[in-house]
Amino acid sequence: MLVLAFKHVIADFVLQNSWMALGKDQKTGWALPLLAHCLVHLAVAMALILVLAPRFWFLALIDFAIHIVIDRAKGLVASTFDVTVEHPWFWTLIGVDQALHHLTGFGLSIFMAAN
């Protein structure tokens, strides 16, 4: 769980640039920034899993797919309701997004521990 939480912080905050962060939440033109952002998650997850538990390499692909779904849902809400930093839902939306990502890591960790 700690490794996947570390992966998430690195990929979501350190390696995500503003083109990805702002672009993935737009009404149009969101696909490429979202894909680039999620490919960063895939690359970091795959590298860490291959080093620590290579037999679970496929979990990086599952993490990638779930990350796309969560971030696209957040982007749809943000663009549909014009959620910007000034909007009252902004921090709630960020919090729900981050909670779902960490729950994903928790679920993948449970899977690895049980297998």
Polypeptide structure, described:
- With 115 residues, the chain is mainly alpha-helical.
- It has five helices and no strands.
- It has helices spanning 2-14, 18-23, 31-52, 58-80, 90-114.
- The longest helix is centred in the C-terminal third of the chain and has 25 residues, at 90-114.
- The two termini are 15 Å apart.
- The model has no long low-confidence stretch (mean pLDDT 97).
List keywords for this structure.
115 residues, mainly alpha, 5 helices, elongated
* Overall shape: elongated
Helix coverage percent: over 70%
> Strand tally, please?
0
Roughly what fraction of the amino acids lie in strands?
Answer: under 5%
Return Rg in Å.
14 Å
- Identify low-pLDDT runs: none
Describe the largest sheet: none
Euclidean distance between termini CA atoms: 15 Å
Mind sketching the topology for me?
Elements: H1 2-14, H2 18-23, H3 31-52, H4 58-80, H5 90-114
Helix pairs in contact: 1-3, 3-4, 4-5
Short description:
It is built from five helices and no strands.
